[in-house]
Design brief:
Layout lengths: L7 H21 L8 H7 L2 H7 L19 E3 L10 E5 L25 H5 L4 H17 L2 E5 L22 H16 L4 E7 L12 E3 L2 H8 L1 H10 L3 E4 L3 E2 L2 E2 L4 H11 L5 E4 L7 H7 L9 H13 L4 H15 L16 H15 L1 E5 L10 E5 L13 H7 L3 E2 L1 H11 L9 E4 L2 E4 L14 H10 L2 E7 L17 H16 L3 E7 L15 E4 L7 H10 L12 E2 L15 H10 L11 H7 L1 E3 L8 H6 L4 E3 L10 E11 L2 E10 L8 E7 L11 E7 L8 E9 H4 L1 E3 L4 E4 L2 E10 L2 E10 L3 E3 L9
Parallel strand pairs: 2-3, 3-4, 4-6, 5-7, 5-19, 6-9, 11-12, 11-15, 15-16, 16-17
Antiparallel strand pairs: 1-2, 7-8, 10-17, 13-14, 18-20, 21-22, 22-25, 23-24, 23-28, 26-27, 27-30, 28-29
Helix pairs in contact: 2-12, 3-11, 3-12, 5-6, 5-13, 6-8, 10-11, 13-18, 14-18, 16-17
Length: about 775
C-alpha cells in the first residue's frame, strides 16, 4: 500500500478550502420568507422534502427540550431559516402537561367545557370566545396550531368521543366549528378541523371501512366540514383514520384534492391523524401533506416512491410548498416572544360563563331555581369526585350562600375512599383535569337505611343527585353504558320518595359523556339538568344556574332516544364481540405495525350506513319515533312567545324573521331554530331539517327582540348522485320557527318558482 505524505501546510489549506466551500454552499441556501417559497422548494433535496412531509413525532416530548404533552409538530430546517413548530391536541382546551422535565416552572392551562356542552349554547359568539382563549394559551406556550375542533356527526349514542364532537346535525356542527376556528386563528394560532371524514366510531377506527352513499356523505358527514372550510379558512384539516367506501381517508385523492381543495377552495395543509393510513407515499400522493407522527418507514417510503416514479417530484413539491405556506403564518416562524404566562384568571372566568350559559334544563317542576340559603343534600358518587372540575359542586354552592349537608359529604368520601383531610390532588393534561380519586362506574352508590333517608329529608330543604357517565377516545361505549345502574335507579327512587313525603324537591344532574336512557325514571325527580362535561368551573357554573344567577339557555344538540333499538344505526354500529376482539388483536396500526391477516380485516371491519341521511332527529321526526328528549330541547326559568314571523326573498337567499317575547318573570335568552320542510322531488326528504338558528340577547320580562336568519338556495338543495349536482326542487317549502325539533311555534310557506341546479365548485355554493 502506498503512503501519501501531506504537509501541515497542505492539510491546513485543504481544511480551509473545505470550510469555505461549505460556507459558500450554506450561503446559497435561501432563507424562507413568504415571497420565496418556490425558491426554497427548488433548493431542497428529495430527502429534505420527504422530511418536511413527515411529522416530528413524539420523540421530543419528554427530553427536557420540548413541550411535554404536545402531540407533535412540523419539521424545522435551520439551513432554510425556520424552526420546528409545535402542534397540540385540544378537545376542551390546550393539551399539554403542566410540568416539564428539568423545569421548576408550572404551565397552567384551563379546562374548558366539553365541545358538546359548548355546542349546547347554540351561540356562535360563545364558541368564538372560547376559541380565542384557547388560542391565547397556545400562543403563550409556543404552540403554533391546535388539533381541534372535532366535528364528526353523532350518529349513535354509544360513540366514545361523543363529548368531543358537537352535534347530530351538520349545519350546527359546521357553524359552531367555524366560530371556534375564527376565535383561535384571530390571535395568530392555527386550527385543524377533524376528523375528515366519517370517524363516527372508535371501535376498529384505524381499519374500519365506512360504507356511505354519496348523498349521505355529502349532505350529512361532509357538510359541516364544508361550512367550516368556506366560512373560517382553517389553517389545517386532519384526515381521519378510517376508510370511506374502501379507500383510507388519508390516501383518498378524491376527498383531499378533488373535493376539499378544488370544490371547496381549501388553502391550508392536510395532516393525517396519528398512525392513520397504511402507505406513507400514497398519503403524500393523495394530497395528505404531512403524515403523522412521522416514522422512519414513512420517510423512506416517500423517497423510494419518488425514485421509482410512483410519486412524482412535482407532487412532492406541491405538498412541501403548502407546508411552507403554513409555516410562514406560524408564531414560531415569526419568532413571537411567548411568555409561558397566559391570562389563566380571565380564561377561568370565561370558562365559567360558557358552561353556565350552555347547561341544559331538561325538566323543571318548580324545583329550580333554589331558594337562597337552602340546605342541600347532595347524593351520588359523581357529586363528590371533581372529575374534570377544579371546583366541586359543594364549594360552588357554598360560594352562592347555600348550605351543604356535611354529614353526607363525609359519608360519601368514606365510601369512595377519599381522604377528607388531604388536599384533593390533581393531574392535568389536555385541557382536561382529572382528580386522582375520580369515581368509577364500577363503584355502586352507597346504601342508606330508611331512617337515614328520613333524617336527611327532614334536615335538608332539597336534594341534588349527581350521576356520572364517562367515555373517551379509542373505545366506544357498551349498551350497558346507556342505562343507569341498579344502584343509581334505586338511589333516585329512595331519595325522591323520602323528600317528596315531606314536600321537598329533588334535582338530578347528569354529568355524562354520552346520551343515556332517561324515559324510565325521568318522572321521579322534579328537575333534571344535563351538564355534559363542564370543565374545571363546573361547580361554579352549576351553582350559578341552580341559584338563578344565570338562567339556563342551553339546548340539546343530540336526541335522547327512549331505547337504543329506536336509533336508525342500531343494526350498523359495532356492539358485538367480534369487533371488540379484532380491535384488541390489531391494536394501534401504523406503517410499522400492520395487521397479521389483511383479508380478515378487509372482510370484517366495515360499517354500513344504511340509514343514509336519516340521522338523529331527521329519522325520529320523519318516522314518528318517540324520543325521551328531542334535538334542540332545553327549558328556561322564564317563557317565550313567538309571533310576527316572516320570510321573503332577498337576492339569492331567503330572509326569515320572527319576534320573540319574554313572557315570564326572569330575564333569559332563547334559541330560535329554523327548520324547513321541502316538497316532494327527485329524492325523498326528511320531515324537516335545520337550516338556521339564532340566540336572542338577554331579554328582560316583557322585552321583545326580532331575530333574523338567512337561508341560501344551496342550503335547500339535495345531492343528486346521478348528475353529481345539488338540486333544490321547485315548489312549496315550509319555514318552521321552533324552540326544539318537536316544539314548532310559527310556520310559513314560501315557493321556489323554478328548480335550481348547482354544480360543485366553491365559488357558487354558499351557506
Amino acid at each position: 500500500m502506498r503512503l501519501i505524505r501531506v504537509s501541515m501546510k497542505d492539510l491546513l489549506m485543504c481544511v480551509l478550502g473545505l470550510f469555505f466551500s461549505v460556507a459558500i454552499i450554506a450561503q446559497t441556501e435561501p432563507k424562507l420568507n413568504p415571497d420565496n417559497i418556490d425558491e426554497v422548494v427548488s433548493a431542497m433535496t428529495i430527502e429534505e422534502k420527504a422530511e418536511m412531509c413527515c411529522g416530528v413525532g413524539t420523540f421530543f416530548r419528554d427530553n427536557g427540550k420540548g413541550i411535554t404533552g404536545a402531540a407533535g409538530g412540523v419539521a424545522g430546517m435551520e439551513q432554510f431559516g425556520f424552526l420546528l413548530s409545535y402542534m397540540a391536541d385540544g378537545p376542551s382546551g390546550l393539551r399539554i402537561k403542566e410540568t416539564r422535565i428539568n423545569s421548576d416552572q408550572t404551565y397552567p392551562i384551563v379546562s374548558f367545557p366539553s365541545p358538546i356542552l359548548l355546542a349546547s349554547s347554540w351561540d356562535n359568539e360563545v364558541a368564538k370566545m372560547m376559541g380565542a382563549c384557547i388560542g391565547e394559551e397556545c400562543k403563550e406556550y409556543n404552540i403554533s396550531a391546535i388539533l381541534a375542533p372535532a366535528l364528526n356527526i353523532l350518529r349513535f349514542p354509544l360513540l366514545g368521543r361523543t363529548a368531543e364532537y358537537f352535534s347530530e346535525d351538520p349545519l350546527l356542527s359546521g357553524k359552531l366549528a367555524s366560530a371556534y376556528v375564527k376565535g383561535v386563528q384571530s390571535v395568530g394560532v392555527g386550527t385543524s378541523i377533524k376528523h375528515f371524514v366519517a370517524n363516527n366510531q372508535e371501535t376498529a377506527r384505524k381499519i374500519n371501512d365506512a360504507r356511505i352513499s354519496m348523498r349521505a356523505l355529502r349532505e350529512i358527514y361532509m357538510r359541516g366540514f364544508e361550512i367550516a372550510v368556506k366560512e373560517s379558512d382553517p389553517w389545517t384539516v386532519m384526515s381521519a383514520y378510517n376508510k370511506i367506501n374502501g379507500v383510507y381517508a388519508s390516501e383518498n385523492k378524491w376527498l383531499l384534492e378533488d373535493v376539499l381543495r378544488d370544490e371547496w377552495g381549501f388553502k391550508g395543509i392536510v395532516v393525517s391523524d396519528w398512525d392513520a393510513g397504511m402507505d406513507g407515499a400514497a398519503q403524500i400522493k393523495a394530497g395528505n401533506d404531512i403524515v403523522q407522527p412521522g416514522y422512519e418507514v414513512q420517510y423512506n417510503a416517500i423517497i423510494q416512491a419518488v425514485k421509482k416514479g410512483t410519486l412524482t417530484e412535482a407532487e412532492l413539491n406541491r405538498n412541501v410548498k403548502r407546508i411552507l405556506q403554513y409555516i410562514v403564518k406560524t408564531s414560531a416562524y415569526k419568532q413571537y416572544q411567548f411568555s409561558n404566562k397566559p391570562d389563566i384568571t380571565k380564561h377561568k372566568e370565561i370558562a365559567r360563563k360558557i358552561a353556565s350559559e350552555s347547561l341544559i334544563l331538561l325538566k323543571n317542576n318548580t324545583a329550580l331555581p333554589l331558594k337562597s340559603n337552602s340546605k342541600i343534600a347532595i347524593y351520588g358518587n359523581a357529586g363528590y369526585s371533581k372529575g374534570s372540575s377544579d371546583v366541586s359542586l359543594q364549594r360552588g354552592l357554598e360560594s352562592q350562600n347555600f348550605n351543604v349537608d356535611r354529614n353526607l359529604e363525609v359519608l360519601y368520601k368514606l365510601h369512595l375512599g377519599i381522604d377528607t383531610t388531604a388536599q384533593e390532588a390533581q393531574l392535568t393534561e389536555g385541557g382536561m383535569i382529572y382528580t386522582m380519586f375520580s369515581s368509577s362506574p364500577d363503584v355502586e352508590e352507597p346504601e342508606f337505611t330508611e331512617e337515614q333517608f328520613k333524617v336527611q329529608a327532614s334536615t335538608n330543604d332539597c336534594a341534588i343527585i349527581v350521576l356520572g357517565q364517562g367515555a373517551g377516545e379509542s373505545k366506544d361505549c357498551n349498551p350497558d353504558d346507556f342505562i343507569l345502574t341498579e344502584s343509581e335507579i334505586d338511589l333516585i327512587d329512595k331519595v325522591s320518595n323520602a323528600f317528596h313525603k315531606v314536600g321537598k324537591k329533588v334535582t338530578v344532574i347528569l354529568d355524562i359523556a354520552i346520551p343515556i336512557e332517561t324515559a324510565s325514571w325521568k318522572e321521579k325527580p322534579d328537575a333534571i339538568i344535563c351538564a355534559w362535561q363542564s370543565g374545571q368551573e363546573k361547580g361554579n357554573a352549576l351553582a350559578d344556574v341552580l341559584s338563578g344567577v344565570v338562567n339556563p339557555s342551553g339546548k340539546l344538540t343530540v336526541s335522547f332516544p327512549i331505547n337504543l333499538k329506536d336509533c336508525p344505526a342500531y343494526d350498523n354500529f359495532p356492539m358485538d364481540i367480534k369487533y371488540r376482539w379484532m380491535w384488541a388483536q390489531h391494536g394501534f396500526l401504523g406503517d410499522k405495525r400492520l395487521p397479521k391477516n389483511q383479508s380478515e380485516v378487509k372482510n370484517v371491519h366495515y360499517t354500513e350506513y344504511n340509514e343514509g341521511i336519516y340521522v338523529g332527529y331527521r329519522y325520529f321526526d320523519t318516522k314518528k319515533v318517540d324520543v325521551s328528549y328531542p334535538f334542540g330541547h332545553g327549558l328556561s326559568y322564564t317563557n317565550f312567545s313567538y309571533n310576527k314571523s316572516n320570510i321573503e326573498r332577498k337576492g339569492n337567499e331567503w330572509e326569515a324573521s320572527v319576534t320573540v317575547k319574554n313572557t315570564g318573570e326572569f330575564s333569559g335568552r332563547e334559541v330560535v331554530q329554523l327548520y324547513v320542510s321541502a316538497p316532494d322531488g327527485f329524492v325523498d326528504k326528511p320531515e324537516k331539517e335545520l337550516k338556521a338558528y339564532v340566540k336572542t340577547k338577554l331579554l328582560k320580562p316583557g322585552e321583545t327582540e326580532t331575530v333574523v336568519m338567512k337561508v341560501t338556495d344551496y342550503m335547500l338543495s339535495s345531492f343528486d348522485e346521478k348528475e353529481n349536482r345539488w338540486v333544490a326542487t321547485q315548489g312549496k317549502y315550509v319555514a318552521l320557527f321552533a324552540s326544539s325539533s318537536n316544539d314548532i311555534r310559527e310556520s310559513l310557506s314560501f315557493k321556489l318558482k323554478s328548480e335550481i341546479n348547482e354544480g360543485v365548485k366553491a365559488d357558487n355554493l354558499k351557506f
